[in-house]
UniProtKB/TrEMBL annotation:
Localization in the cell: Endomembrane system; Golgi apparatus membrane
SUPFAM superfamilies documented for this protein: SNARE fusion complex (SSF58038)
Positions of transmembrane segments: 133-153
Protein name listed in UniProt: t-SNARE coiled-coil homology domain-containing protein
Compositionally biased residues, Low complexity: 20-32, 47-57
InterPro entries associated with the record: BET1_SNARE (IPR039899), T_SNARE_dom (IPR000727)
UniProt source species: Puccinia coronata f. sp. avenae
Bilayer topology: Single-pass type IV membrane protein
Swiss-Prot/TrEMBL GO biological process terms: protein transport
Location of the T-SNARE coiled-coil homology domain: 63-125
């Protein structure tokens, strides 16, 4: 259904010539509606083919074209809304990913600090070749061997 009586005034401004007159035959009034048919008007105000049909059928054809245009505009508007929603979702995903990357960077920095401290202590301990840790290591090896040979002997 056409909304000819409820048009946006800016829509007609798109088709105006600048002096207030309109270049569209639809905005000039119903008396100057184009006629569709086989012959052509010789009058410069009627750029479309003439027809032997009444102005009612011309008005009806214009309404049908307007209705088709309105449907096409609605379809395009739906596509634009869908694309806008997709772009907003992409923007949200990018923000979430950026926040996650910042959190991971902070976590890895903390882990690097903790591991570097641990490696520093291990390095210091390894440089002491005959420190207390060496005695504990020998004690654990000896206990392991005792349990191992006891287990072998009882089998």
């Amino acid at each position: 259904m056409s909304k000819l009586t409820h048009r946006d005034p800016n829509r007609a401004a798109l088709l105006s010539r600048g002096d207030g007159s309109s270049s569209s035959p639809y905005t000039q009034g119903s008396s100057q509606m184009p006629s569709y048919g086989r012959g052509y008007h010789t009058d410069a105000q009627h750029p479309f083919p003439s027809s032997s049909s009444s102005s009612f059928s011309n008005h009806r054809t214009a309404e049908e074209l307007e209705s088709q245009n309105d449907e096409a505009i609605e379809g395009l508007s739906a596509k634009v809304r869908l694309l806008k929603e997709i772009t907003v979702n992409i923007g949200t995903e990018v923000k979430d990913s950026t926040n996650l990357m910042a959190t991971l960077t902070d976590t890895f920095s903390e882990a690097t600090g903790a591991l570097s401290g641990t490696f520093r202590k291990m390095d210091r301990m390894a440089k002491k070749q005959y420190g207390r840790w060496w005695y504990w290591f020998l004690f654990l090896v000896l206990v392991f061997w005792i349990f191992f040979f006891t287990w072998l002997w009882r089998r």
